[in-house]
Amino acid sequence: MRDDMIRTRQREIAAEHLLFKLIEYVESRDPGLLDFLEASLSHLGDPAKDDSKDDEGVREIARRMIAGARAQGTG
Questions:
Q1: Cβ neighbour number for residue 27 with a 10 Å cutoff
Q2: Residue 74 and residue 34 in contact, taking contact as beta carbons nearer than 8 Å
Q3: What percent of the chain has pLDDT over 70?
Q4: Element containing residue 20 per DSSP (H, E)
Q5: What whole-number distance in Å separates Cα of residue 75 and Cα of residue 68?
Q6: In this structure, what are the phi and psi dihedrals at residue 47, rounded to the nearest 5 degrees?
Q7: What is the reported pTM?
Q8: Distance between CA atoms of residues 20 and 43, nearest Å
Q9: Using CA atoms, how far apart are residues 57 and 75, in angstroms rounded to an integer?
Q10: Residue 74: its pLDDT value, please?
């Protein structure tokens, strides 16, 4: 089980890195992606069907990712 958790964490780190690099690449060539992504957040939600469901928590993570991309000078 521990190995599964480690592998999941590693995949999340790798996916986040690649996503940031993709956002950086697109934003540098066609500014506006970050604004577009930010405007879409009201449609973002947590698909969980149990007590762990937290739509606002998911949106807050996305907001922080967008803010991080902006802070790195991509937006």
A1: 21
A2: yes
A3: 96
A4: helix 2-29
A5: 10
A6: -80, 0
A7: 0.78
A8: 20
A9: 23
A10: 52
